Amino acid sequence: MSDTPKNPFEAMMAQAQEMAKALNPALESFSPKGFEALWPTMPKEVMEMMFGNAVNKDGLDAKTRLLLTLAGLTCQGAQADSALRQTVRHALEAGAKKQEIVETIGQMSVFAGIPAMTRALELAQDVMDVKGDDET
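The structure corresponding to this sequence follows.
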């Protein structure tokens, strides 16, 4: 089997990987998942101020906004692993129940398809398992 890239995208990715290794050999085993630990979960009050109904008192609260964001990320094919996990973590902090998160993702199967829903559920489950409580 040849290591020669089959298309321009593969060639670009191979070149980028070689450049990263040349700049810092540790980048060969780099995982973006480690960045998630650097991004703290905002307290519910901060989320309400920034994303909730602080400015528009009759608007959506932070929990609803985060569930909508989760739905959107699922509809995009659940490809943004870090963003999806962070959204689940923030939704839990904003008061979303695990059941609400699962239902939000499940509802998107109609629009995004079963593979996207399954992937989103896997990513959400990772976060909810770490959270550890049995609240539904």
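The chain is about 60% helix and 0% strand.
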